[in-house]
Each structure stands twice: as structure tokens, then as C-alpha cells.
Amino acid sequence: MSAQVDQLKAELLELALEAAHRAGALLHDGRPAELEVSATKSSSVDVVTEMDLASEKLITGYLSERRPDDGFLGEEGASSPGTSGVRWIVDPLDGTVNYLYGLPGWAVSIAAEFEGETVIGVVESPPRRETFRAALGHGAFCNAQPLRCRPAPPFDQALVATGFNYVAERRAAQAELVRQLIPRVRDIRRSGSAAVDLCDVAAGRLDAFYERGLHAWDLAAGDLIAREAGARTGGRPGLAPDGELAVAASPGVFEILQPLLDRLGAWHD
């Protein structure tokens, strides 16, 4: 059975890599000079562009053609249960506002679950010419290089990334949390892409990342990549990362940061 699961992981990883590469090329090479916003989501600053929709259509079309019985959960509306035990979790363009403004902090994120457990994660970052990938139990890589998270520094020297919600009231609460956290750490970074931040924890470019309000498509691939690179991930103490709170960090930093965020109320507005 284990050999069959490993074979399945290999197949899913190959498909995820190709789908992410195709979508990344579409986004990178096909970006219109004047990019139009197609819709708004949670607020007027939480946008969907024509390219988000085109990317998701490409990814789901490619994967469903090759594995028609699989399920999907996509940020821009792809949703089907499937019958194979495999579900693809797709963020066709993580960092849409960065993409809209021509900033490099965006990526394509594709994860695959098997029987409810994430087994494959791929994050394609065309502006950085980097492809992050992981298979459960088989490590994490960026391009051909294996990844390991950074050894934990003293907490007051930790470089921590975060993100902000698009709803004004929640952003205000998150800003207050940063005000309380920043004197306790080296500094705070905000890239605009949770998938990129999680991969940067895996690559040792950040000591930690946390955010409230993320969805499965924001988290699934990057969380697996971070864990396979030796980072610890979680939500509130004792829980998996979810919409209330997601934390990823070098183990020594995680042990301090997760309970601190819980005490500071990072999980509520």
C-alpha cells in the first residue's frame, strides 16, 4: 500500500509541477499592459483580475483532463467533491494585488490531498524564477536544491512575516497586534503573498510567518513545503493552521511565537 501511495504522490507531483508551470507562464508572459479588475471579493481592495480566472481555468482544465475523477477546491470558484480520494486545492494567483501593481510578490499555489491529508505542494514564483515543491515524507525543494528552515535565533532576533486582511476593521486589529509584537522581534515583513512567505520560511529567508483569515488555498501547498523543510506549523495551540490563525516558524521560534500570538489575541478581531 505504501508503494502505491508513493507512486500516487509521484504522479500528482508531476502533474502539479506542470500545471503550475503552465499557469505561471500564462500569468508572467500574458499579463496585459492594462490589467482590468473583474470583481471584488471581501472588500473593494480584495480583487479578482481576468488573469486569476484564466489561470484557474488553465489549471483545473489541465488536471481534470488527466484525472477526471479528482475533486477541486479553487479560490475563484472551482469546487467539486470527486470520487478518487484526491482533491486539488488551487490558488491560481496568490498575491493578486502585487500582480495588479506589477510587484514581484505573487505565485501560483497547487496542493493535492489524498483522503483528506495534504500530500503534495507546489508554489511557482515566476518573478523569482523559483519553483518550490514538496511531497509528504520526501522533503522540500526549491528548483533542484533541498530546503531547510533557518536555525532558530534568540526570539528578539527573529525576522517575522505577516499579512493583513482586506476588511478594514480586521486590518486595524492586525495593525494593533503588530504594534505589540514588533518591539519583541528583530523586525516585521509583509510581502502580500502567504504562499511566498511560507516558502521563504522553508528556505531560511524568514524565521517565522503568521496570519489570520487565510483559506485552505492560501495555506495548503506552502504549509506542506514549510513542514517538509523542518519548520513547525499550527494554528492556535494544539490546533492545525486555519482561518483563525496560521503560524509557521523554525521550531525554536515557533515554541515562543505561537503561544505569544494566542495571548495577544491574533485569532480574533
Question: Mind explaining what this structure looks like?
Answer:
With about 270 residues, the protein is of the alpha+beta class. The protein has 2 domains: about 140 residues, Fructose-1,6-Bisphosphatase, Chain A, domain 1; about 110 residues, D-Maltodextrin-Binding Protein, domain 2 (3-Layer(aba) Sandwich). About 40% of the residues lie in helices and about 25% in strands. It has 7 helices and 15 strands. The chain has an 8-stranded mixed beta sheet with strand order 4-3-5-6-7-8-9-10, sandwiched between helices. Helix 1 packs antiparallel against helix 2 and helix 5 packs parallel to helix 6. The protein is globular and about 50 Å long. The relative contact order is 0.13.
Global morphology: globular
Category from helices, strands and their pairing: alpha+beta
Tell me the CATH architecture of the largest domain: 2-Layer Sandwich
The helix fraction, in percent, is 25-40%
Q: List the helices and strands in order.
A: HEEHEEEHEEEEEEHEHEHEEH
Unreliable stretches: none
* Average of the residue pLDDT scores: 93
Beta-strand segment tally: 15
Give the terminus-to-terminus CA distance.
45 Å
Radius of gyration: 18 Å
Numbering strands along the chain, what is their spatial order in the largest sheet?
4-3-5-6-7-8-9-10
CATH topology description of the largest domain: Fructose-1,6-Bisphosphatase, Chain A, domain 1
Major sheet: 8 strands, mixed
